[in-house]
Please model this.
Amino acid sequence: MTSDAPQGTPVPNLGDRFTFLLAHADDNMVMAQRLGEWISNAPELETDIAFGNTALDHLGVARALYTHAADVEGEGRSEDELAMFRAEREYVNLLIVEQPNGNFADTMARQMLFDAYQLELWADLSQSDDPVLAGISARAQKEAAYHFRNSSGWVIRLGDGTEESHERMQAALDDSWKYTAEMFEGDAAAYRPAWEHVVGDVLYAATLSQPDSSYQRSGGRRGFHSEHLGFLLAEMQWMQRSYPGLEW
Amino acid sequence: MTPEERFDAIIAAEDKIEPTDWMPDGYRKTLIRQIAQHAHSEVIGMQPEGNWISRAPTLHRKAILMAKVQDEAGHGLYLYSAAETLGVRRDELQELLHQGKHKYSSIFNYPTLTWADMGTIGWLVDGAAITNQVMLTRCSYGPYARGMVRICKEESFHQRQGYELLLRLCEGSKEQKAMAQDALNRWWWPSLMMFGPPDVDSTHTEQSMIWKIKRVANDDLRQQFVDMTVPQADYLGLEIPDPELVWNEERGHYDFGEIDWEEFWGVVKGNGPMNRERVAHKVKAWEEGAWVREAATAHAAKKNRAA
Amino acid sequence: MTYDVPVAPGESGEIETSTDTGGEAWPMWEVFVRARRGISHVHIGSLHAPDSETAMQNARDVYTRRGEGVSVWVVPSSEVSSFEPEDAVDYVDANEKIYRHATTYEIPDEVGQM
Model:
């Protein structure tokens, strides 16, 4: 894009504190929305409950971050205004979280890779000079540890389970891998070595091979999403956009 | 003392029958039917509400709905555990549900068409369930009674959040209030049907009362529910869709109209609006998850062999 | 009531309680929870899980709603041995062993509190 191009949607600046908070809020919001889709659809009752609990954790973090972002922005917006009245090109979540659930292996691949990233992220942000962010991150870090234990457990169970589950889990991993580089763009590059180590251990225990990294997708953090996000937001935002300005 | 005498003495003393006690075959079978169908109802009940999780109008409401539906899954789980103490397996009970040989409460065969349905379900359906719940904590069978105590503790927020949701709508715009009234119009009669047929037509009431599995009769529960709910509807400013509903000073209760028993039995027999879809949804989740369950079992076996 | 399902006219009240499911279900686990320090673990219910790790995580999700500071034990149901009241036919009532009760023994007041 040249500097003469007409101004469309402004490109988000992650150096800006507000946008930075939105990015992590959006990650957790979209993840919560996706996990919620598993409710009443899981392979067993206990697994269903686990999905619900994980979704609630991500939703809780999203809400805390949206509220804090709104305070930082200082224009009196609410958590709902930020979640429900920003369109696809304004959302700054990672591409990995907006991908469809697919089958159980697809969901666990996405979850495990994201959880491992969140472990590093929250460990870092819990040291933030911003006390509110530090507090949110400390709680989120505990939850991420629990999520990772669950998701990595499943990747291992499926990778080293039956032949069928191994094939599905490898395929799921192969599909998700192209969304991993985006997690480590910019300052987040510092998280990569630890993440690689942790994920490597899981893949080894799961008897899975690390996928080819050469093809990587990016753009979510700049508002350039996959076609999936539009549908997700349409469903999520429909009530508010149909009946704007009301109390629920 | 014969085993029968001991059983009767425990019941008479308001004590609990525990899993290894001798019990009449009819008692065991009645309990399995009742507990299993209660459990199935909780699990199927996740679907009509789960339908609105992705579209909840605020993040707060989304969180509440997710938590409520997870509670219901948990309740199903506690109840299946109670049923299993009677010598049946959970996967067997689920298979019977999938085959259509076990039923669940008919209320869940109705569709949730608007956001207001979320409020109505909490207010009326959970309200109806609660009318009976406390009574079941005094059921003679220990594991069922204890499961119900856990459930009761967690239920308190279910009805309140539903009513509060409707209150917000009724205090809101004209469209919101109309949405609430429309939901009440669709859910009122099915809610009354939850209490079952009149006791005179109910084949199991008498024996269940003797065995202290059922503690209060259908008609009494239904009356209790109506008496409690009418003032709540008045407070919301909503009209209950029953032209014959009127306070009877002499009886000290509300008189209300006759339930459409044809619709009632039709839905019980499987011809309600969503009977097929609800079971199909459950079957699909189960079948599509088979490879996952198998993988977990295979992995555990590998670990055990290696240990 | 609470989700009681009536028997329709013409239908048998009989309900099937077992069926051939074929596949291997996840085994059952008994769950014990200690809600806080200072009290003991209490049996709280059961659940199904493929292994102890999942059983513990599920137990935390289902029975403690992720309560912090809660201790959870899970035991395969098949590992639980039990002693039931009917088995106690020859078991002497503990109350008969009065020699185990302090009140059986008279201590002179001069000796002081004991």
Observations:
- Strands of chain B lie at 246-248, 253-255.
